[in-house]
Amino acid sequence: MPRSPIGLAHAVTALLAFLIVVDVLGLGAATYMMSVMGDLASGSAADVGAGAANQAVAAISMTTSMYMLGQPGTATLFIIWLHRARRNAEVSAPDVQRRTPGWAIGGWFIPFANLFIPYGIAKDVPRASQRDPYASELRHQGLLNARWGMWIASSIFDQFAADQYDEASNPQAPHDAAGWLMAGSALDIVSAVPAPLFVPRLTAAQNEKAMAGRQPLRPSVPQNPAVGGPVMGGSPVPGA
Question: Mean of the per-residue pLDDT values for the chain?
Answer without folding.
Answer: 79
